[in-house]
Amino acid sequence: MARTVHHAQVADLADNLVSEQLRYYRARAAEYDATSYSAEPVELASVPVIVDRLAISGDVLELACGTGIWTAELVRHAATLTALDGAPEMLDLARQRVPTGVRFEQADLFDWTPTPSWDVVFFSAWLSHVPDQRFDAFWSSVAAALRPGGRAIALDELPARSFHEQQVQAGVAVRTLQDGTKHEIVKVFWEPGALGKRLTELGWRATVTPIEHGWFILDATR
User: Fold this and answer.
1) Whole-model pTM?
2) Top-tier CATH class for 2-221
3) Closest-CA residue to 152 (of 45, 47, 63, 28)
């Protein structure tokens, strides 16, 4: 019985944390472009170069599109592009940045039932916001969204970039908004080898490649 209660408590903590994380990103939307990696000219200039390198084509689903930084480049390559985010404030900004060629939808990516409609599922700076307790279920949803032979492509930060974060415990960081309010969020820094091994155990064939600016590219198929 004690073990069951423990697992329930862990699940409750994960639920609370992802709810707080969504509140944080809703509140941060208006300042996101001025305070994220996109505020760094060199990193922002790399976005179209990286997307070109990925050789994305066909019907594409972008998860956690945020303000549309990557959406604006994906639309150049995709036959169709659907972009999801849980924060309506982020979606409003993304629509302004990419006014045509994209179907934007609000969706809770932790409570999401996809259909196998896409050739590529893409997400940038999102995998690190998936708590360990939700990792397997999240990747099951990604698999369900892909057509046979489809690709899951993710970009995220390597552990070398963890100095940017105020981590309060493993997988949890505190972020401060411009108004001084503080929010706890999920922040998991994956080592490429550990991430590749975890996905292999879930039935994926994955390569994890470090790239410039302390980021990595994950390219995975089933």
Assistant:
1) 0.93
2) alpha beta
3) 63
CB 174 within 8 A of CB 182: yes
For the chain, the domains span 2-221
pLDDT band at 164 (very low <50, low <70, confident <90, very high): confident
What single-letter amino acid sits at 71? T
Q: What 3 state SS string does 36-76 have?
A: CHHHCHHHHHHHHHHHHHHCCCCEEEEECCCCCCCHHHHCC
Other CB atoms closer than 10 Å to residue 143's CB: what's the count? 19
Angle at Cα 70 formed by Cα 69 and Cα 73, nearest 5°? Answer: 105
| CA distance linking residue 88 with residue 111, whole number of Å | 16
Contact 95, 66 (CB under 8 A): no
**Cα-Cα-Cα-Cα dihedral of 75, 77, 80, 85, to 10°?**
-40
**Tokens 């996809």 belong to residue:** 114
What tokens appear for 115 in the block? Answer: 């259909």
Structure tokens that stand for 163 in this block? 């100095």
The Cα–Cα gap between 168 and 146 comes to 35
pLDDT in tens, 60-105: 999 999 999 999 999 999 999 999 999 999 999 999 999 999 999 9
pLDDT band at 2 (very low <50, low <70, confident <90, very high): very low
* Cβ density class 13-51: b for 16+ within 10 Å, e for less: ebeebbeebbebbebbbeebbeebbbeeeebeebbeebb
Sign of CA dihedral 181, 182, 183, 185: positive
Cβ–Cβ under 8 Å, residues 94 and 108: no
Contact 67, 90 (CB under 8 A): yes
